[in-house]
Amino acid sequence: MPKPIIPESLESYVTDWMMSPGLEHDGFVFMTGFTGADADGLLADNPTDQIEAVFEKIGMVLAEAGLGFEHLVEMTSYHVGLHDHLNAFKDIRAKYVSEPFPAWTAIEVAGFVREGAYVEIRCIARRN
Questions:
Q1: Is 110 helix (H, G, I), strand (E, B) or coil?
Q2: For 32-41, what is each residue's pLDDT tens digit?
Q3: ∠ CA 108-114-117 to the nearest 5 degrees?
Q4: Mind listing the pLDDT tens digit for each residue in 74-124?
Q5: b vs e for 68-104, b when ≥16 Cβ sit within 10 Å of the residue's Cβ?
Q6: CA distance linking residue 20 with residue 18, whole number of Å
Q7: How big, in percent rounded to 5, are the helix, strand and coil portions of the chain?
Q8: Residue 36 in contact with residue 53, Cβ under 8 Å?
């Protein structure tokens, strides 16, 4: 039976959107796509701060599941203006992931549900 992973600060994902920030099933934790809005729902006006905020949310879900970034096996990042902030994304990502690096796909998109978002990331982690 799947088990929801819901850090307290992300409970609005369940109440407002009817989705789990993370869902554990058979040792895998599947995470919803996160944008860089802060706990109050505010978006920074630059990609770098938004990217940092996304990685912080991913870290919260991993911690709630008793895992860390070393448990990531797959990451998909969606970007508005991918080439404008790809190097910053790579630099920030490198602060969180380590070898063996998770598989990663980066995709350019036209936009997100949340206007003003530059990036959304979804991940899959696995217990060892």
A1: coil
A2: 999 999 878 8
A3: 50
A4: 999 999 999 999 999 999 999 999 999 999 999 999 999 989 999 999 999
A5: ebebbebbebbbbebeebeebbeebbeebbeeeebee
A6: 7
A7: 35, 25, 40
A8: yes
